[in-house]
Design brief:
Helix content of chain B: over 70%
Strand content of chain A: 15-25%
Helix content of chain A: 25-40%
Distance between the termini of chain B: 45 Å
Radius of gyration of chain A: 19 Å
Number of helices of chain B: 9
Largest sheet of chain A: 6 strands, mixed
CATH topology of one domain in chain A: Rossmann fold
CATH superfamily of one domain in chain A: P-loop containing nucleotide triphosphate hydrolases
Keywords (chain A): ATP-binding, Nucleotide-binding, Transport
Number of helices of chain A: 8
Distance between the termini of chain A: 29 Å
CATH architecture of one domain in chain A: 3-Layer(aba) Sandwich
Bound molecules: adenosine-5'-triphosphate, magnesium ion
Oligomer: heterodimer
Strand content of chain B: under 5%
Number of strands of chain B: 0
GO molecular function (chain A): ATP binding
Pfam families (chain B): MlaE
Organism (chain A): Azospirillum rugosum
Structural class of chain B: mainly alpha
Shape of chain A: globular
CATH class of one domain in chain A: Alpha Beta
Number of strands of chain A: 10
Number of domains of chain B: 1
Protein name (chain A): Phospholipid/cholesterol/gamma-HCH transport system ATP-binding protein
């Protein structure tokens, strides 16, 4: 645990701030003192190896998992000790694209996209359907796809439906868990631009997890790298190639040699 | 020492599970009575539980009534009490066999499917997704199922009562050569409202128990396909056992002879 720590602070006041957040599953320590701030209207990209706790971190912020200790604030409000009803109110601010899309398989695609509008905001179904079809258009899915069920879609299409669902009710804070994984390079770039647009046009605060460096460069205002349950580096997106941090260097350039050792044995 | 420790551990696990179930039940009940409710979801569950269980429950009741008539005939004829068959069929079906067998069949059909559906939603993060879309999973998933179970099972059992008695009638008239009108009047003669009502109360409790077990085990399932499989098994087994236990308790409450 001698990784050098450098922090570039975001614009103040922060929209989300994590202080010393710990989370373990049984003996397995996943988050080991996460410190992170995300500014209002900022797009933060979190990078880090597989299984280092990126998804767990997002779920802790949402309250889907409870951190063992530490403080998580959203708009200055401490969220780790919220009661169920206040938590529901807080979650109104959030939209999330899950890594596995997590579409409701008993509902049609358009009903998935319109779900937050119909159930959360009590919009009439006809109007919600119009908006849903518009959002699906933005992720490159025609209206005919809306009548299908999620199980009838390809993996990449499911991801895009998940994305449309996450942005449909124009939340203040949007989390994207690997939005471009499983997409072809062209569609990936379309999605990158869509995410940028969400942040610029809606003024949303975005946290994106990705392994795709092209995507990170395009989306990010700032980049944070997670390693062994801590944020070991944060910096501006343009500094990512000369971070001066060997861990970040290795990750960004995708080299097997370096301070990060993969737990693999030769065949 | 080892034995004591093992017993103690088992006891603690039991207490923890009971506590967890208790909290789950309270949370679920509180969402059943607090708006917003989801009428579409409630309707869907009512149709699933009430309408689509009709064939299974109806067939069960029909054959139960028929076999009851046959069995009591062969038994009662030993002491020339064949005349009591209609009454025995009516009482057994309305008080006991309608609700219990109906409940068990529904536990197998509905409890399993609820646990599988909610369990799959859990392991594919759909339940997490619900929360991020400003929808309380208890309200959206659990409450409609509990309400549907509570209301639809009595209706199902009422139908089962009628079909069961009719099954007895069929065997009585066509196989044992009873006079139809005297069989029917025998059926009514000793049947009291409390017989049917106690059966319907049982049905409501069983419906609630089946839905509760399905939701509880599904909601807490973990892992992947295997976890969902375990949840399904646990839902059916625990619902069936609870049905038998509650059946005894409710019978005790209604018909305790002091
Ligand atoms: N519900 C859970 N129960 C037990 N362990 C878990 C659970 N969720 C995550 N973990 C563990 O936490 C670690 C981090 O998981 P997480 O999903 O956050 O990884 P990640 O950084 O998102 O990886 P990837 O890039 O592959 O998605 C993993 O080692 C995983 O085994
Ligand atoms: Mg992940």
């Amino acid at each position: 645990m001698s990784a050098p720590v450098s922090q570039v602070p975001p614009a103040h006041p922060p929209k989300i701030s994590l202080k010393n957040v710990h989370k373990r599953f049984g003996p397995k320590v996943v988050l080991n003192g996460i410190d992170l701030e995300v500014g209002r209207g900022e797009s933060l990209v979190v990078i880090g190896g597989s299984g280092t706790g990126k998804s767990v971190m997002l779920k802790c912020i949402l309250g889907l998992l409870h951190p063992d200790s530490g403080s998580i604030r959203v708009d200055g409000q401490e969220t780790t000790k919220l009661r169920a009803r206040d938590r529901e109110k807080l979650l109104h601010k959030f939209g999330m694209l899950f890594q596995g899309a997590a579409l409701f398989d008993s509902l049609k695609v358009w009903e998935n996209v319109a779900f937050g509008l119909i159930q959360g905001e009590h919009m009439p179904r006809a109007k919600a359907k119009e908006i849903a079809i518009a959002k699906m258009g933005a992720v490159g899915l025609g209206p005919e796809v809306g009548e299908l069920f999620p199980s009838e879609l390809s993996g990449g299409m499911q991801k895009r439906v998940g994305l449309a669902r996450a942005i449909a009710d124009e939340p203040e804070i949007i989390f994207f868990d690997e939005p471009t994984t499983g997409l072809d390079p062209i569609m990936a770039d379309v999605i990158n631009e869509l995410i940028v647009k969400c942040v610029k046009d809606l003024g949303a605060t975005a946290v994106t997890i990705t392994h795709d460096m092209a995507s990170a460069r395009k989306i990010a205002d700032r980049v944070a790298m997670i390693y062994q349950g801590r944020i070991i580096w944060t910096g501006h997106a343009q500094d990512i190639d000369h971070s001066g941090n060997p861990y970040v260097d290795q990750f960004v350039h995708g080299k097997a040699d370096g301070p990060i050792k993969m737990q693999v044995r030769a065949l | 020492m080892g034995f004591l420790a093992a017993t103690g551990r088992a006891f603690l696990v039991f207490l923890e599970a009971t506590g967890k179930l208790g909290l789950f039940t309270i949370a679920a009940l509180s969402h059943c009575v607090r708006p917003p409710l989801y009428p579409r979801q409630i309707m869907r569950q009512m149709i699933d539980i009430g309408y689509y269980s009709l064939p299974v429950v109806g067939l069960t009741a029909l054959f139960t009534g028929m076999v009851l008539a046959l069995q009591s005939y062969s038994g009662f004829s030993r002491f020339q009490a064949e005349g009591a068959i209609a009454t025995v069929v009516a009482l057994s079906v309305t008080r006991e066999l309608g609700p219990v067998l109906g409940g068990l069949m529904v536990a197998g059909r509905i409890g399993a499917s609820m646990a599988a559906e909610i369990g799959t939603m859990r392991v594919t993060e759909q339940i997490d997704a619900l929360s991020t879309l400003s929808t309380n999973p208890f309200k959206y998933l659990v409450a409609p199922r509990l309400l549907a179970g509570l209301t639809m099972l009595p209706l199902l059992v009422l139908v089962a009562d009628i079909i069961g008695v009719f099954g007895g009638f069929l065997v009585g008239v066509y196989r044992l050569n009873f006079n139809p009108s005297s069989y029917i009047s025998r059926t009514w003669e000793f049947l009291e409202p409390i017989d049917v009502i106690s059966g319907l109360v049982k049905a409501a409790v069983f419906g609630f128990v089946v839905a509760l077990m399905g939701c509880y085990h599904g909601y807490h399932s973990r892992g992947g396909a295997q976890g969902v499989g375990t949840a399904t098994t646990n839902a059916v087994v625990s619902a069936s056992i609870l049905i038998l236990v509650w059946n005894y308790l409710i019978t005790g409450i209604f018909f305790s002879t002091k």
